[in-house]
Specification:
There is one protein chain. By secondary structure, the chain is mainly alpha-helical. The chain has helices at residues 4-15, 19-22, 29-46, 50-57, 61-69, 76-82. α1 runs antiparallel to α3 and α3 packs across α5. The longest helix has 18 residues, at 29-46.
Length: 83
């Protein structure tokens, strides 16, 4: 199982955002897309608990859980293959 930092770095590089943006409460389209992808992969695909992902991101558990179960981001599969 990859650690959250490794997963975050792959998404940050692939989506062209900064780590500080991913780990903030920022709600721009690009950041939300990257954060949704991160939550879906970390919680649904890899199996991290929502509260652990929330602490890593600096957002609420509720936000993480909502993003994790939202409609899947099409490009998330490319990051899953990297794991």
């Amino acid at each position: 199982m990859p650690d959250l930092s490794t997963l975050a770095n792959r998404i940050i590089k692939g989506e062209g955002i900064e780590e500080s943006e991913l780990r903030s409460g920022m709600w721009t389209r690009e950041v939300v897309r990257a954060r949704r992808m991160f939550c879906q992969l970390a919680v649904v695909k890899v199996g991290y608990p929502g509260p652990e992902v929330a602490r890593f991101l600096g957002v609420t558990t509720s936000s993480v859980n909502r993003l994790a179960i939202s409609s899947e981001t099409a490009d998330s599969e490319k990051y899953l293959k990297m794991l």
